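REQUEST FORM: STRUCTURE PREDICTION
Request ID: SP-0412
Submitted by: Lab K.M.
Chain count: 1
Length (residues): 74
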Amino acid sequence: MTPHRPGRTSGGRGRSSPSGESVAFLILAGVVTGGGVGAGIDWLIDRFPLCTVVGVFVGFALALYALYLETKPR
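STATUS: Completed
RESULT:
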């Protein structure tokens, strides 16, 4: 019998759930990256709040999708 190793899954039951810190970092990184990309586009086309707001929401949505991909069972 093999010992249980934390962080590893056994028997094909799916992945282990991510820690709270990694979830928070993933969401925050998505929002900040989306906002940064949007602000860069706003700076290029001189329309300040429009692309920044859209970028924040798109970054949040992509972060939630990445979180789903990280936690879905195989």
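NOTES: Residues 30-71 form one domain.
Reviewed by: T.R.
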